[in-house]
Amino acid sequence: MNDTTDDIADESTDDAAGTPVLRVRGLRKQYGAGEGMVRAVDGVDLDIGAAETVAVMGPSGCGKSTLLHLLGGLERPSGGQVWLQGRRIDGIGEKALARMRRTDIGFVFQSFHLMEELTAVENVELPALLAGRSPRAARERAAQLLEQVGLAERAHFLPSALSGGQRQRVALARALSNEPPLVLADEPTGNLDSAATVEVLRLFESLHRRGQTLLIVTHDARIAATADRLISMRDGAFVDETRLGGGSTGRLGALVGLED
Amino acid sequence: MGRILLVGRLAVRDLRRRRLETALLLLAIMAATTTLTLGLVLSEAAGDPYRSTREATNGPDVVAGVGRSAGLARLEELAGADGVVERGGPYPVLRARLQTSGGAWDVQAVGRRGADAPLDRPQLVRGGWVREGGVVVEAAFAAALDVGVGDRLTLDGEWFEVAGVAITAAMPPYPEAFCLLACRADGEPADTGAVAGSAREAVRNPGLLWLTEADVRGLTSDPDALGYVMNLKLADPDRAQAFVDANLRMGAQGAKGVPYLLSWQYILQESTELAQDAQVILVFGSWLLALLAVASIAVLVGGRMAEQSRRVGLLKAVGGTPGLVAAVLLAEYVVVAIVAGAAGLAAGALTAPLLTGPGTGLIGGAGTAPITVSTAGVVLAVAVAVAVAATCPPVVRAARPGTLGALAASVRPPRRVGWLIAVSARLPVPVLLAVRVAARRPRRLALTVAGIAITVSGIVVALSAGAGLAAQRLAGLYDAAQAALLGQVLFIVTLILLCLAGVNAVFLTWATVLDNRHLSALARALGATPAAMSAALAGAQVLPALAGAVLGIFPGGAVLLAVINAMNDNGNDAALPPLWQLLVVVAGTVLVVAVLTALPARLGGRRPVSRALQAEV
Amino acid sequence: MHQEVILAMLAKEPSHGYQLRARLREALGPLGEALNAGHVYVTLTRLEKAGLLAADDTDRSDRSDRSDRKVYALTPAGQQRVAEWIAEVSWPKPDLAQFHLKLITAAAAGLSDPLAILDAQRRELLRRLREAQRAAMAEPAHSDAALLLEGIVLRLQADLRWLEACEKNWTLRRNRS
């Protein structure tokens, strides 16, 4: 946890302690009207503190992906308020939203969403280029991130030459390109087999240890179990919340029939 | 049988599922085939109406005339020459000044008796034959004068009424008509009159009128002002030119009162000169349009094939052979091509009379040139060939991959052009995205460049032809009416070309927008603003448009002009337009493409991000 | 712990009790920590009495513990038993019926909201999953212990998925009534 305090800039220490990275009140999103109206997200309140990892779990269609898109400014809410690092972001203009996505949020998607014609390092540097960094600075940062996710030697591979787990690691590196205070992940293990899932889990755990604030929506219990806090979502609303932290139950043996 | 039914049903289903694209496809092929039909009809019209007019009016094989009554004896001699089987006339001809409310014209008034002359019985388009105080006006001239039956006019100050409007095969229609009398400004009849047309400058493009003989004689007190014209029929019409040459050689030795002679072949050539010029414009225009149609169809089909690869996989999975798959895919476009070809034929047939009908002065023939079987065949073949040429590569590509691959991969993966990606990293964000968007589809990029290059080369030729037309008019080769008509033809072809190019540009942009749905959504999720994305999508068209415009001038337009000059043997070589015009064309092209692509690009840049990202890729 | 596991470990060669414990530890990783040290010796003694293995305590080198000095070896009957065990296809039965009936009876008697029971149960399983997963990620990849932990994780995932199915069903039932 020592790294965490190092990562936070001096002048923002008060903020980090007081203001959550993400604060949501009464967030709603509905599609259609009248009889056919669907409440995809129906009055959600949420606070995520700095360096916290929160997982939102629920069956498919419960509204968790919509929630993520609302928080990332990819969709407009029908109602409610969202603060990102203390700034209201619901109702701001498209341009401001784009700027926010560029610098304050990193996205990780279920189907990776890498550009097929760009190599791993070119994919990772793209957000930095979009943010107006110099090509050299963007490339250096990208190389460093690929090193961090253990893919330095594959920097010049096209996505099609990478395994699923490797692609998602590239996507995660890309999400970190502009050092966003918040990373939003949408089913990051949804398209991965068991071994690749472990690759990505390790990466999320190490991010978590380094103090990255993370919000993961998933129905994969494995990645949800890495979170500090787990929220269950049903029919567009939060129904249960658990803090997963805490000591070992010490009863692992019982799970494999080693104890009676 | 069942298989053909299946292919047909699948093809029609798919077409109905994508109405807009089908409509655009139809439009593209139709524009090309309409123009081609017009070009071909005109080429037939250039010869046919004259022949039918000649038949209907019992046109002469040779027209002979003398400038003064002293030559009447020579005409009589000619009538008795070898090979002459029938004669009409001689009829008196008088040069006169015609005056209507609209202005004054030089005319040649021919005195005729009844309508039952053995040769050259002008066919009435409207009204009746000459009577006392009633004149018949040649159709093209009537159109130029804008007079109709019942209108009144004066000849050398005397009042006449228009009794009818007629066409003839003994004289090219106005304003190509040549002088039967030597048309000298001082009114002095030419002595030899060997080539009547050479005196054209003397009297400005005389119009042709028919009066009663008595009325003609009544217009002048000087019998020497009268000339005479006589029509001859030969035993062998094909030898008419030889007859003229032989008798002219004789006449050249004599002095005054020697008759001039004109063969029907010469009249035919004079009558159709204008039509041939228009035809060159139309045929060239239609080839350019066909090329442009190939480009737009290739884009359409290419874009659709990418979406269809899954459908192809399904067809194969249920047992379709590659041949069947190709047949299904091709059938669609062949059906569209045939429908569009037929529509183009119909449209061409409907518009052709506007250019070839009697009274427009272009041909002045009897009736419209019919659409022959060969014209229809050529047009349909071109339509189908265009569709097949544009469809084949993507069809082969779609039919070839393995069943599993086709089922799995829904979208053609984008290409990687490494150096462009590297270079673009140094550019501002919208240009960076534009270059990368454009580079993902090199084939479409090439088509964009080619389409614009074709259009611009067409514009260059049109500009050059327009300038040439003005120059020729100044030189007196065409009069105002002719130049206006040719200008109109040029304008119409250019307009169709521009429209098709415009549709093409919108098309390409929309295909790019659809193709890059995912890329735009992703770029925006990573922080690109909608404005930057829209600019990028438009830029992906504008940048190649710039390249295409430059290529369209050189080598495009320059080569095309060289080809046209090589084909035109009239010695009026067309030159490249001046530099400032070329620069305006390039700037205009870029501007127009930018404007046309702005809307689809704007729509594309602002699509909701989350839906595009959620769709599985 | 099945007696047959201890017997089978002697099939390779006669061993001391502490050697058996070390081999068990290696195979089980962090799960082996929970093993009671005496448990192996109790089992060995029981097996010796049953005539399935024979103990030889001739080696009196440095160990003071009586059981540790002994070297155990399989008897013919023990060998027979091991062969039978290897050929067996029995599989531990997860007791799902108990939880299923808990939900039904709780709902019927109005003792508790079945959805609350489900939430509590899921929390518990997720905690176990988190623990097993942490343990698995701490192990070197492809080790015997990591494989075993992967098995635990997968079973817990299956159980969680069943809870999800239960939740869907009970939500439906509640909405219908």
UniProtKB/TrEMBL annotation, chain A:
GO cellular component, one term: plasma membrane
SUPFAM superfamilies: P-loop containing nucleoside triphosphate hydrolases
Record-level Gene Ontology MF annotations: ATP binding; ATP hydrolysis activity; transmembrane transporter activity
Keyword ATP-binding: yes
Residue intervals of the ABC transporter domain: 22-260
Keyword annotations of the record: ATP-binding, Nucleotide-binding, Transport
Protein family: Belongs to the ABC transporter superfamily.
Protein name: ABC transporter domain-containing protein
Organism: Planobispora takensis
Source lineage: Bacteria, Bacillati, Actinomycetota, Actinomycetes, Streptosporangiales
From TrEMBL, chain B:
GO cellular component labels: plasma membrane
Family per similarity comment: Belongs to the ABC-4 integral membrane protein family.
Protein name listed in UniProt: ABC3 transporter permease C-terminal domain-containing protein
GO molecular function, a single term: transmembrane transporter activity
Transmembrane portions of the chain: 280-303, 324-351, 371-396, 445-471, 483-507, 545-567, 579-601
UniProt keywords, alphabetically: Cell membrane, Membrane, Transmembrane, Transmembrane helix
Matching InterPro entries: ABC3_permease_C, Macrolide_Exporter_MacB
Location in or out of the cell: Cell membrane
Highest taxon listed in the record's lineage: Bacteria
Topology within the bilayer: Multi-pass membrane protein
Pfam families: FtsX (PF02687)
UniProt cross-references to PANTHER family, sorted A to Z: ABC TRANSPORTER PERMEASE YTRF (PTHR30572:SF4), MEMBRANE COMPONENT OF TRANSPORTER-RELATED (PTHR30572)
ABC3 transporter permease C-terminal domain residues: 284-390, 492-601
Primary location class: membrane
From TrEMBL, chain C:
Domain Transcription regulator PadR N-terminal: 6-83
Ranges annotated as spanning the membrane: none
Annotated InterPro entries: Tscrpt_reg_PadR_N, WH-like_DNA-bd_sf, WH_DNA-bd_sf
Highest taxon listed in the record's lineage: Bacteria
Record's protein name: PadR family transcriptional regulator
Species this chain originates from: Planobispora takensis
Origin organism lineage: Bacteria, Bacillati, Actinomycetota, Actinomycetes, Streptosporangiales
